[in-house]
Write a structure and sequence with these properties.
With 243 residues, this protein is of the alpha/beta class. The protein is built from 7 helices and 9 strands; from the N terminus they run βββαββαααβαβαββα.
Length: 243
């Protein structure tokens, strides 16, 4: 079953009177519960495409159909409010209960959801911390928990680990794999890191000049070991196609 179906999608920008075709006649399908990564050279349209799926930008033409309407979007930076604790930032993801008849029940339900998610992302002991006291990796864990607060059916990740140091980045991709295998929601990741894409994904899509030019199926069992010959062969094949 398809969680997302995109047909003939187009998006053009104007930059100093120059027309830039960020997405061109793009058609693709993402299966429910799958993990898909999109790789390609800088400027090929990866992030624009992700924002079109999320509704953060409007397409010029084409259609995007969803199996489920709730979408979580994780940016390159955590974007946590510095004057609120981790719990306080997560609480903002829920609708206000002010004036509702079942205010106390909904508040308890939201608080329980927050505690479960803090446990899931490894921040059970950090809920009362402010963002200034968190490392970059912890801040991204908090941002991921915030994305998951409303039980999205689709999670969109725009290079969420790119600003982290190499060790933390590897740790978080292991955690991301664990969380996805537990929740089994549909995930699309935009990344420049081919190893990261192969480590996490069922499918890796190669994007070039605003469209998908090649699809790689990654049948390796999860969790994956990066030093195996099969793993490295997939990385090498994708890298050679990018050029």
């Amino acid at each position: 079953m398809s969680a997302i179906y995109v047909s003939n999608l187009n998006k053009t920008f104007q930059n100093n009177m120059v027309e830039i075709k960020a997405v061109q006649n793009l058609t693709m399908e993402v299966q429910t519960g799958s993990f898909t990564s999109i790789v390609g050279k800088s400027g090929c349209g990866k992030t624009t495409f992700l924002k079109l799926i999320a509704g953060l930008q409007a397409a010029d033409s084409g259609t995007i159909n969803f199996e489920q309407s709730r979408i979580g979007f994780m940016f390159q930076d955590a974007r946590l409010l510095p004057w609120r604790t981790v719990r306080g930032n997560l609480l903002l993801a829920f609708p206000s209960v002010r004036g509702r008849k079942n205010k106390q029940i909904e508040t308890q339900k939201n608080n329980a959801q927050i505690e479960n998610l803090l446990q899931l992302v490894g921040l059970a002991e950090r809920g009362d911390e402010y963002p200034s006291r968190l490392s970059g990796g912890m801040a991204q864990r908090a941002a991921l928990a915030r994305c998951l607060c409303r039980n999205p059916g689709i999670l969109l990740l725009d290079e969420p680990f790119s600003a982290l140091d190499a060790i933390t980045r590897k740790q978080l991709r292991v955690e991301m794999s664990r969380i996805w295998r537990k929740l089994r929601i549909t995930v699309i990741l935009v990344t420049h890191d081919i190893e990261e894409a192969v480590f996490l994904s069922d499918t890796v899509l190669l994007m070039n000049c605003g469209t998908i030019t090649k699809q790689f199926t990654i049948p390796l069992e999860q969790p994956r070991i990066i030093h195996t010959p099969d793993f490295q062969n997939y990385c090498r094949e994708i890298e050679e196609c990018i050029g």
